[in-house]
Automatic annotation (TrEMBL):
Disordered as annotated region, ranges: 1-55
Matching CDD domains: PDI_a_family
Organism: Chrysochromulina tobinii
Name this polypeptide is given: Thioredoxin domain-containing protein
Gene3D superfamilies, per database record: Glutaredoxin
InterPro entries membership: Thioredoxin-like_sf
UniProt biased composition (Low complexity): 1-19, 27-37
Length: 397
């Protein structure tokens, strides 16, 4: 019988490359540690079953070098550690993260003021066309706004006259902090702000004079008192410091008291009738209260020496003639009063223009009134607005 030969079995696929040489056989211990094909298939299925976890967790090779795990066998040649699928983390982690983000946004919106999220807004420049023609009111807003308005009446710092107080207020209103407040008030529809430069144009000057009486409006009375020589530094034309620290405008009226012994002075009588009128006394009280001006008088037929010190003899027809008005500021003589003294409006205009700036409050459909807050800082305006909001809310309850 011919010897039997082993015929190699042909592969169903044609080989495209020579068969690689077989590596040396692994040791029995190595074979025992390698997982069986069934374990590898199970690991592959486990990997396919958790695609979401693979998307959330960072790649092991990128995040950190993999730790060396000792290869151990469970007795069946299967390493349970190497066959486990990557851990996907707690299933509640993602919803908790989303919830925390929502809470942070809500709490942040409640804690952070609206002005920090709004674009800062400048105080708007306005002109005469923003006001009613024959009223001390603003025209109705075109967008239907019915809240309050504050209008600053001030001077352009680059033009005459000099106004240090105007410059100080300007530095407050152009600050980023104030602009954020303006944007916030506008957003909440509680306040809008504008300003008018009273020395920019003739029409602006006329408008400011029209509103000059507003700063003198009030219900209190303050009679114009006659002053004594002790108010002045002895032998000098300088006034002593006021007991209450006031260092603003003072107008001293050198006039003559009506009496049978005094020579006739018709202008003095007219001025005396004006300053003793209750309307003027209310003006003086308001000016005094707001620190704008104070009015005093000297009877030259009684204080002859004091009048002569200022060059006023007290005789009718002399120069300077009676009545004679001298302007003081901070106790120092500033010169002769250049305004008229035949009407209340003359004094209104003078006080208004010599005590700039002014802030007037316009409520919807109402005449302007003097702003009753401070103007030295952003906090002063904020405090005033908060107080007005609180009053409005209480009125609605």
């Amino acid at each position: 019988m011919p010897p039997r030969t082993n015929t190699p079995t042909k592969s169903s696929r044609p080989s495209t490359s020579p068969a690689p040489s077989r590596p040396p056989s692994a040791s029995p211990a190595r074979k025992a540690a390698s997982p069986k094909p069934s374990a590898k298939k199970a690991a592959a299925k486990a990997d396919e079953a958790t695609p979401a976890a693979a998307a959330i967790e960072p790649d092991a090779e990128v995040a950190a070098p993999a730790a060396t795990v000792p290869e151990t066998s469970n007795g069946n040649g299967h390493n349970p550690v190497s066959a486990e699928a990557p851990s996907s983390g707690p299933q509640w982690a993602l919803p908790l993260c989303i919830l925390a983000t929502i809470i942070a946004i809500v709490v942040g919106a409640a804690v952070w003021p609206d002005e920090l999220q709004l674009e800062p807004r400048k105080v708007t420049k306005i002109g005469p066309d923003a006001f009613e023609l024959d009223k001390l009111e603003l025209k109705a807003s075109k967008d239907g706004y019915t809240g309050s308005n504050l209008v600053v009446f001030t001077y352009n710092a680059s033009l005459k006259p000099d106004c240090p107080a105007c410059t100080a207020l300007h530095s407050v209103t152009v600050s980023t902090e104030f602009k954020r407040e303006v944007a916030n008030w506008r957003h909440k529809k509680v306040l809008r702000m504008g300003k008018i430069l009273c020395n920019n144009a003739k029409q602006n000057t006329d408008l400011c004079e029209r509103f000059s009486a507003v700063v003198g409006a009030g219900d209190d009375f303050s009679p114009v008192n006659a002053i004594e020589p002790t108010v002045f530094v002895e032998g000098s034309r300088q006034m002593k410091p006021a007991a209450d620290g006031y260092a603003g405008n003072v107008l001293v009226l050198f006039t003559q008291e009506s009496s049978a012994k005094a020579p006739p002075c018709e202008p003095c009588q007219k001025l005396d009738a004006l300053i003793t009128d209750p309307t003027f006394e209310r003006r003086e009280a308001a000016w005094r209260k707001r620190g704008l001006a104070r009015i005093a008088k000297v009877y030259c037929n009684k204080q002859i020496d004091l009048c002569e010190r200022f060059g006023v003899t007290g005789s009718s027809g002399t120069e300077p003639g009676l009545p004679h008005v001298v302007w003081f500021k901070g106790g120092e003589e500033q010169g002769m009063y250049e305004g008229g003294h035949s009407s209340l409006g003359d004094f209104d205009k003078w006080v208004f223009t010599h005590s700039m700036p002014h802030v007037l409050w316009f409520e919807h459909g109402k005449e302007a009134v003097a702003y009753d807050g401070n103007t030295s800082s952003v906090a002063d305006f904020h405090k005033w607005v908060v107080a007005k909001e609180d009053v409005a809310e209480r009125a609605e309850l």
